[in-house]
Structure prediction request, 108 residues.
Amino acid sequence: MSGHLDVRQYGRMRGRELRDTAMNQVEQHSPIESSFLYDVACKLARTRIPFTSDDVWDAAGISVREPRVMGPVMRKLAHDGLAVKTGRVRQGHRGVNHARPQVLWIGL
Prediction:
C-alpha cells in the first residue's frame, strides 16, 4: 500500500507503534525540511538554554508544507543524545498551536 498505514492494522498496533509509524512516514516525505530543522535544533541545543519547538520554528524562519515534521526532528535530537526534555513546559506562542503547553528541551 504505497507507504500508508492500512487502517485495518490499527487494532493490532499499540499507540507507540502508531506514533512511530506516522513519524517515520512524515520524516521520509519531508527529508529536506527535516534535515534543515534538525540543524537549527542542534544549534539551539548547543546554547544550553531551554527551548521549545516554537523556538526552532522561529530560528529556522521558514514554513513547511508538513509542520508535523518537527516531531521526528525533536525525537532525533533526543535519540542522538543532543537534548533532553526538562520535565517543564512553556506556553506556545505560534498561532497554529493555540497557546498549548510545549515541552521545554535543553541541550546536553
